[in-house]
Amino acid sequence: MDEKDEINLIRIHNSPINMSKKCENQEHEDNSFIDVKSSENIFPWINKFNKIMSSSVGHRSYQLLKHLLSLYTQHVLTSINTYCEKTLDMIKLKNHLSSTLIFFHLYWNDIKEHVNDCNLYLNQMSVLLGIYIDIELKTFKCTMDSSKVASKLLSALWIYLSNSEKHIFRVLLKLKFVTKKYAKIYDLIFMKSFTSFKKGVESLTDIDYVRYLLVLKMWKKTKETVEEKKQMNKMALTILGPCIPKMRNELLNIIPKVPTGLEDETI
Question: From which domain of life does this come (predicted)?
Answer without folding.
Answer: Eukaryota
